[in-house]
Amino acid sequence: MLLDGNQRFVAGESRHPNQNASRRSELVDTQNPFAVIFGCADSRLAAEIIFDVGLGDIFVVRTAGHVPDYAVLGSLEYAVSVLHVPLIAVLGHDHCGAVTAAQHAVETGVAPPGHIRDLVERIMPSVLASANAAQQDIHAVVVEHVKQTVHRLLDNSRVIFDAVDNYSTAVVGLAYRLDEGRVQLVSTAGVL
Question: What is the CATH number of the domain that holds 13?
Answer without folding.
Answer: 3.40.1050.10
